[in-house]
Amino acid sequence: KPERMVHLGVTTISLLLLLVAGGFLIYKLPYDSSTMAYLGVIFGSSGGLLTYSANRLLRMWDQALQLTS
């Protein structure tokens, strides 16, 4: 059970870091046409890197919560 709680903590931190990195990209990158395409790859609703990674992290988090309950 302790290793599952560590797993939950690590995945939570990973998700927060993904969101912070996405926010940092929006804040720091200039808004021209090439940057907007780059941001679309990262934040795209169906195939974006951030969306896919967050989905996998939340799925693992759900499975770990089911095991600890």
What this model shows, in words?
It is a single chain. The model has no long low-confidence stretch (mean pLDDT 75). The protein is mainly alpha-helical. Helix 1 packs antiparallel against helix 3.
List the keywords.
0% strand; 69 residues; elongated; mainly alpha
Task: Spell out the blueprint of helices and strands.
Elements: H1 2-28, H2 33-43, H3 49-68
Helix pairs in contact: 1-3
Shape: elongated
Radius of gyration, in angstroms, nearest whole number: 15 Å
What is the oligomer described by this structure? Answer: single chain
Proportion of beta-strand residues:
under 5%
Q: Kindly state the number of beta strands.
A: 0
- What class, by secondary structure content? mainly alpha
Mean pLDDT: 75
Count of helical stretches: 3
User: Low-confidence segments, ≥5 residues, pLDDT <50?
Assistant: none
The separation of the N and C termini measures: 10 Å
H/E topology pattern: HHH
> Helicity level, as a percent range?
over 70%
Largest sheet: none
What's the gist of this structure?
The chain is mostly helical. It has helices at 2-28, 33-43, 49-68. The chain contains three helices and no strands.
